[in-house]
DNA sequence: CGCCAGGGCCTCA
DNA sequence: TGAGGCCATGGC
């Protein structure tokens, strides 16, 4: 597991995922940047990050990227701004529900909110709140199934538990590893994988079978 | 034109 | 508790 991480880190370098907006030009507070990460986590559900970036840009330009602004806006107003991220009516509702949540941020509380499932909750906890929850996504399952390290029919929680058991409990490693997994999934371990050029081909039984 | 992207909810067995 | 349908835009 750590070997895979180190290989990917060497191959791709640091990914620096979140926070996205450059904090040089405006003095956004850390709570602003936290909220922005959580918004991104919701908007990117089953959606390419490019489409999400446009939506976030629209929110910023309308001065709407804050809990208060989203909480006080109508669903339609939010929906219009985030249209490019897809599923925009659902996501507008999800954003409003999250922006209206005033309890403490725990995994259990996040999961109790409509629109926040395990991956979104863990993304928020890890990237916005620096808590050691490993984020499992479709790429993670696909890649580690092909690597032969899981069977592929495990539940989200089972896969998460495996990673958290195998890896040192280190937030920075969790953040970087998940980002690297996404990068490998996008570049090589696609639905139709490009095994020939994959940096993990020497470790991967799947790559050997598929020439 | 078809396929898919940094999922989650609902329904129905 | 798990499979299948649904949500929707934009890039290639």
Q: Overall 3D geometry?
A: globular
Give the distance, in angstroms, between the N- and C-terminal Cα atoms: 23 Å
Mean pLDDT: 93
Low-pLDDT segments, ≥5 res: none
**Biggest beta sheet summary:** none
Percent range of helical residues:
55-70%
Oligomer: single chain
Report the total helices: 12
Estimated structural class: mainly alpha
Strand content: under 5%
Number of distinct beta strands: 0
Radius of gyration: 18 Å
Helix-strand pattern: HHHHHHHHHHHH
SSE arrangement:
Layout: H1 2-12, H2 30-43, H3 49-61, H4 67-72, H5 75-81, H6 88-100, H7 107-111, H8 118-128, H9 138-146, H10 156-166, H11 171-187, H12 205-209
The chain binds a DNA duplex (13 and 12 nucleotides) through helix 2, helix 3, helix 6, helix 8 and helix 11.
Summary of the model, kept short:
With 211 residues, the chain is mainly α. Helices cover 58% and strands 0% of the residues. It is globular and about 55 Å long.
Explain what the structure shows.
The longest helix has 17 residues, at 171-187. By secondary structure, the chain is mostly helical. The mean pLDDT is 93. Helix 1 (2-12) packs across helix 11 (171-187), helix 2 packs across helix 3 and helix 2 (30-43) packs antiparallel against helix 8. The chain contains twelve helices and no strands. It binds a DNA duplex (13 and 12 nucleotides) through helix 2, helix 3, helix 6, helix 8 and helix 11.
Output the keywords:
DNA-binding; 211 residues; 12 helices; mainly alpha
């Amino acid at each position: 597991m750590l070997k895979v991480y180190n290989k990917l880190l060497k191959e791709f370098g640091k990914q620096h995922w979140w926070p996205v907006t450059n904090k040089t030009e405006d003095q956004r507070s850390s709570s602003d940047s936290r909220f922005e990460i959580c918004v991104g986590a919701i908007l990117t559900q089953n959606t390419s990050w490019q489409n999400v970036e446009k939506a976030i840009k629209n929110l910023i330009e309308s001065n709407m990227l804050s809990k208060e602004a989203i909480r006080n806006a109508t669903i339609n107003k939010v929906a219009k701004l985030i249209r490019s991220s897809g599923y925009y009516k659902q996501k507008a509702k999800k954003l409003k529900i999250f922006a209206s949540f005033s309890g403490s941020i725990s995994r259990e509380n996040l999961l109790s909110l409509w629109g926040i499932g395990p991956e979104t909750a863990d993304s928020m906890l890890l990237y916005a709140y620096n808590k050691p929850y490993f984020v499992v996504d479709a790429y993670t399952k696909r890649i580690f199934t092909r690597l032969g390290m899981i069977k592929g029919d495990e539940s989200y929680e089972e896969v998460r538990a495996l990673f958290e058991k195998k890896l040192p409990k280190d937030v920075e490693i969790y953040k970087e590893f998940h980002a690297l997994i996404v990068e490998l999934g996008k570049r090589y371990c696609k639905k139709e994988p490009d095994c020939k050029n994959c940096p993990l081909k020497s470790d991967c039984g799947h790559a050997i079978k598929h020439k």
